[in-house]
Design goal:
Region (Disordered): 632-651
Radius of gyration: 30 Å
Keywords: Disulfide bond, Glycoprotein, Secreted, Signal
Structural class: alpha+beta
Strand content: 15-25%
GO molecular function: metallocarboxypeptidase activity; zinc ion binding
Distance between the termini: 95 Å
Number of strands: 27
Subcellular location: Secreted
Biased composition (Basic residues): 640-651
Length: 651
């Protein structure tokens, strides 16, 4: 997927000013975006004639950069000139000779202002002093700009130009607004092995993987190829269909595909709940290729993961939205095209709001007596056919209830941060407020395990993607402290199932050009593996009765943590915990609770903590009475309502 380049090429002379003229008619290979949006181009490479204020300086003139809801003195959504006249310019220093082939522009990101440039000129230079204007014959070439502020507009040059510097010179702008722009430049660096800046930022990968964007059919075909390469450890299945009838394919990696093994935890990665955030989708397709290849080559780390974990990869939750974004292209979809499901719903925030149910019960002191602190049931209204619930969301819920996941990560885009529950603020009047779960320390560790092994997330020297400097917080954030969101997949997973779910925002650019995929794979590869390994942190075990049979649905409680989990059908369980000593209790209806101290060490691998619980006396009495069809003993001393005592007087 990419942008078509025009024919012809022109080399600017080292000195002097010449009109740009065509010197050849071949079609060159297309040039990708230089990286204003991906931050490959740093702030020191961006310059402007003037700026209205610092928060609207040249460093903010990046394609798709977002302003906050509350525009402040640091982060606004464009470069805006200090004056509205045709002498203003926005400049990019490529730091080496580059073949420039096009410009993409947007207006200003703002809830309060309407600013965009409607036409502009383009100038290039080798020394930033002498400039050549792109010509149409003898006239300056005027490029059409934007007609509104969000949809990107691409202008490819009829003749590419080779230079170090490029300027965009606005000539007209929206009559009700100001000279404001967000920009991306298309360009191919010319060969120069001695260029320091290029060598400093160059990242290569040695992995032999399919680094390109995959449409729906290509994705399905790639999954099939990997399955055929590793048939003994992989399986393809689908969890349901999208609104448009596309199957939601999942890819399982395990030494026994299709089976839940006693004592083996289940892990999931999902991606693409927002269809235009495609990097996560491609990372999961790369991950399944990598896992297969490394397993076959005998990589001990990958083999251990495959043999001790049942891994599920769901690369495209919202294939309908992806197809819309894919059709527009990697740079031309704007910030939101393809984000929602076909019926206009945000799938990631389309889950039932169980937070409110639990918090209201706690406020009324009904928890845990009437509302448990875990496995909070889905309200009846949400399950009705008339509820505003996407087909994709219903499929996800069924999948989450069917498979006993322990840990999950949903890959998203547009930022560089790992967020953890709760995503909804507890105070109804707050739009952002730290709202921790009872497992806050565990979630913080899980988030840090991904962020700290990512190449950029914790880099204090990197610039912010948009408005928040997450690197100051080690690349992690409580979801509600960023912005409140009811009905998130993360909160639902924590409150309705045993699974701890986090959101991993894998890059500033939601839809990077495919030339960036090897770079992004290197950024995320180690993090993807490390995060999967965290499923083996904490305690695990089996709850059995005195005859050795596993007890399903037994409750596992940890003293001091007001959130329980439950055993699955075979009686096995997994409880994520940080290193330390914990008093753990196993209890089930009709059984006597049992407690023990379990110690979690720092080394990788969950501590075994099994329980044998005996039937309670009352349960045994009831079982015997029911077996022989006897009336249950009324221990309260009150008359039984089922069999009221007869009055024999007068007989």
């Amino acid at each position: 997927m990419g942008l078509k380049a025009a024919a012809g090429t022109t080399m600017l002379p080292a000195k002097g000013c010449y009109c740009i003229t065509s010197v050849s008619v071949f079609i060159p290979p297309e040039c990708p975006p230089m990286g204003l949006e991906t931050l490959k181009i740093d702030d020191f490479q961006l310059h402007a004639s003037t700026m209205r204020r610092y928060s609207l300086g040249a460093h903010r003139g990046r394609l798709n950069i977002q302003a906050g809801i509350y525009e402040d003195e640091f982060y606004e959504g464009a470069w805006c000139a200090g004056r509205n006249d045709p002498l203003q310019w926005f400049e990019v220093d490529a730091r080496r000779l580059t073949k420039f082939t096009g410009v993409i522009t947007q207006g200003r990101s703002s809830l309060w202002s309407s600013d965009w440039v409607t036409s502009y000129r383009v100038l290039v230079s080798n020394d930033s002093h002498t400039w050549v204007t792109m010509k149409n014959g003898t006239q300056d070439m005027i490029f059409r700009g934007n007609v509104e502020k969000e949809i990107p507009v691409l202008n490819e040059f009829p003749v590419p130009a080779v230079a170090r510097y490029i300027r965009v010179n606005p000539r007209s702008w929206f009559s009700g607004g100001s000279v404001c722009m967000r920009v991306e430049i298309l360009g191919c660096p010319m060969p120069d092995p001695n260029n320091y800046y290029h060598r400093r930022n160059e990242i290569t990968t040695t992995d032999n993987l399919d680094f390109r964007h995959h449409g729906y059919k290509e994705m399905r075909q790639l999954m099939k190829i990997v399955n055929e390469m590793c048939p003994n450890i992989t399986r393809i299945y689908n969890i349901g269909k999208s609104h448009n009838g596309l199957k939601l394919y999942a890819f399982e990696i395990s030494d026994n595909p299709g089976e839940h093994e006693l004592g083996e935890p289940e892990f999931r990665y999902t991606a693409g709940s927002h269809g235009n955030e495609v990097l996560g989708r491609e990372l999961l397709l790369l991950l399944m290729q990598f896992m297969c290849q490394e397993y076959l080559s005998g990589n001990p780390r990958v083999r251990r993961l495959v043999e001790e974990t049942r891994i599920h990869l769901l690369p495209s939750i919202n294939p309908d939205g992806y197809e819309v974004a894919f059709e527009a292209g990697s740079e031309l979809g704007g910030w939101s095209l393809g984000r929602w499901s076909q019926d206009g719903l945000d799938i990631h925030h389309n889950f039932p709001d169980l937070n409110s149910i639990l918090w209201e019960a706690e406020a009324k002191k009904l928890s845990p007596r009437k509302v448990l602190n875990h496995h909070v049931p889905i309200p009846e209204w949400y399950q009705s056919k008339n509820a505003t619930v996407a087909m994709e969301t219903r499929a996800l819920i069924t999948w989450m209830e069917k498979i006993p996941f322990v840990l999950g990560g949903n890959l998203q885009g547009g930022e560089l941060v790992v967020t953890f529950p709760f995503d909804k603020t507890r105070s109804v009047d707050k739009t952002r407020e730290p709202t921790p779960t009872p497992d806050d320390h565990v979630f913080r560790w899980l988030a840090f395990s991904y962020a700290s092994t990512h190449r950029l997330m914790t880099d204090a020297s990197r610039r912010v993607c948009h408005t928040v400097d997450f690197a100051k917080e080690d690349g992690t954030a409580n979801g509600a402290s960023w912005h409140t969101a009811a009905g998130s997949m993360n909160d639902f997973s924590y409150l309705h199932t045993n699974c701890f779910e986090l959101s991993v925002f894998v890059g500033c650019d939601k839809f990077p050009h495919e030339s960036e995929l090897p770079h992004e794979w290197e950024n995320n590869r180690e993090s993807l593996l490390v995060f999967m390994e965290q499923v083996h942190r904490g305690i695990k075990g089996v709850v059995r009765d005195s005859q050795g049979r596993g007890i399903a649905n037994a409750v596992i409680s940890v003293e001091g943590i007001n959130h329980d989990i439950r055993t699955v059908s075979d009686g096995d369980y997994w409880r994520l915990l940080n290193p330390g000593e914990y008093k753990v209790t196993a209890k089930a209806e009709g059984y006597v609770p049992s407690s023990k101290v379990c110690e979690v060490g720092y080394e990788m691998g969950a501590t075994r903590c099994d329980f044998v619980i005996a039937r309670s006396n009352l349960s045994r009495i009831r079982e015997i009475m029911e077996k022989y069809r006897k009336q249950p003993v009324n221990l309260s001393g009150r008359p039984s309502l089922r069999h009221p005592r007869r009055n024999h007087r007068g007989t």
